[in-house]
Amino acid sequence: MTDSQLIREIKDGNVQLYSELMRRYQRKILAFIYHMLKSAQLELLAEDLCSETFYKAFRSLNSFREVDASFSTWLYTIARNTVLSELRKQRAGNVSLDESGIVPVAPPEIAPEQAILRSEKVSMVREAINNLPEKQRSALILREYDQLDYQEIANILGQTVSSVKSLLFRARASVKTQLEPYYVETVYEEYEGMKSR
Fold it and tell me: Does the first or last residue of the chain, that is N or C, have fewer Cβ atoms within 10 Å of its Cβ?
């Protein structure tokens, strides 16, 4: 059953089918919300805001019109607005960046040094993404993590496709600039190590 068919059935009173829509999108929406909250160190709120997103979507399902956007785009928009609303509430205090993050476990065949380097790189990339302005960060997460196309991202962020491309260009450039010193330093250290042999 497609999203459209499910939504039609739900609107016709078969509300138990909403759990199928939730099942299809819950992991993606939760991951999106988690990434948006990470820079404010509010990841613990991700599940609550995910539930709130699905509740708001259910309440507003009768106003959803497929001609305006796909269900997934509409749902991401609700999630984004829910997170932004929460961030505004939380702005009373200073917001700091999360230094640690979740470190992925390396497969056993990888040497310990490689695992440490890999987890350091992952943490540095996460921190660089967290340093981005909100719209750049959202655009980058939607494109790179959720694999959405430019038009979907534009609909979610309320931007034009060309604005989204510009946001992504600036986001990638900023991440690259933030990470450049690390990679230049690593290459220099390797070069110095080769010279001393």
Answer: C
